[in-house]
Design brief:
The protein is mostly helical and 328 residues long. The chain has helices at residues 2-75, 80-83, 87-106, 110-136, 141-156, 161-180, 184-215, 221-231, 235-261, 268-288, 292-297, 301-327. Helix content is 87%, strand content 0%. Helix 4 (110-136) packs antiparallel against helix 6 (161-180) and helix 9 runs antiparallel to helix 10. The longest helix is centred in the first third of the chain and has 74 residues, at 2-75.
């Protein structure tokens, strides 16, 4: 009777351990999946949408300022009749329109941002119309200067093109801040995931020791394989820290560009410097976010690892459970 009781107790212990291993594996993998996605999903949006859109809006502002400066210089120079609006003006207007079109495709600021860009595109069309009128009447300084003044006011007034782009940049910065922030929810997810995975590791080791004491076998290769696979998940925390660090540096670079665009007293020289800073920032952002793509792609291996850990735990304990079932 005592032997039957011992057999039943051992089998129940094995079943409970297997159930606990499977439960901890499921819960730990789900928590890790949620925590990992909380870092790497925003990084993908930042890399492919937010950062390019913010740089495109900044580039459009700079191109419009350079275009306006080039048109004013060309139309009011002594050689205005020969030069017209000038090649520099046409190049910068084309660059501004292309930047605005790319920014509109990203939908970073939602419907309000898309409407703002549509309005800005219409204002830019009206602005180029005033410049064309100034070019047409360039031999009459009064009309020419009036049209240039109309064009300048449409560009720089409170409700003009540059003001609307500045307001759009404020909305984009809010989106960027939300994507980069590591708040209470992220901390909770990572804390829960770490606690569950540590508990799973402890239970795997304790089960290994239990089997060694109960069955006089020093090593269970299946549970050892589950431990090794669990350890292989640890670098994911390092990868997440690297990704978030890159996102924070990216935010600093983009914020610096936006702050420079909003400084008063922009002239031709300042606009040229701003354009160079935008190009430099694009390179820095690319460097900071270069590794986020492959690190984010690792999220698909988390559930695979969970399935393998569960399968190894079953393979390691099920034969012992079946052995005691037959004995009973």
């Amino acid at each position: 009777m005592s032997r039957e009781s011992e057999t039943s107790s051992t089998r129940r212990s094995l079943v409970r351990r297997l159930a606990a291993l499977l439960a901890l594996t499921c819960a730990g993998v789900l928590a890790l999946l949620t925590a990992y996605a909380g870092v790497h999903s925003p990084s993908g949006a930042l890399r492919t949408a937010t950062a390019p859109a913010m740089l495109d809006v900044a580039a459009a502002q700079t191109a419009l300022e350079l275009a306006d400066s080039a048109a004013d210089s060309s139309l009011t120079s002594d050689r205005a009749g020969l030069a017209g609006t000038g090649e520099e003006y046409r190049t910068q207007i084309s660059a501004a329109n292309q930047s605005l079109a790319r920014a509109a495709e990203s939908h970073v600021a939602g419907d309000s941002g898309r409407q703002t860009l549509q309005t800005v595109a219409g204002l830019v069309t009206a602005y180029t119309g005033w410049i064309e009128q100034a070019d047409r009447w360039q031999d009459q300084p009064v009309l020419r200067d009036a049209y240039l003044a109309y064009a300048g006011s449409m560009l720089r007034d409170d409700g003009g093109v540059l003001a609307r782009l500045t307001a759009l940049q404020a909305e984009q910065r809010q989106v960027l801040r939300r994507q980069v922030s590591f708040g209470a929810w992220q901390w909770l997810c990572w804390s829960v995931a770490l606690a569950l995975l540590l508990a799973l590791a402890w239970l795997l080791v304790d089960t290994q020791r239990y089997l060694r004491r109960r069955f006089r076998r020093r090593f269970n290769p299946w549970l050892a394989g589950a431990c090794v696979l669990l350890l292989a998940l640890l670098p994911l925390a390092v990868f997440s820290a690297q990704t978030h660090g890159g996102m924070e540096r990216c935010e600093q670079h983009l914020t610096a560009v936006v702050d420079q665009q909003q400084r008063p007293g922009t002239g031709h020289t300042a606009a040229v410097r701003a354009g160079q800073k935008i190009r430099d920032t694009a390179e820095k952002v690319g460097e900071d976010m270069s590794g986020t793509r492959w690190r984010g792609a690792l999220i698909g291996w988390i559930p695979v690892a969970g399935l393998l850990i569960g399968a190894l735990a079953v393979r390691g304990l099920q034969p012992r459970i079946a052995e005691y079932r037959f004995r009973r």
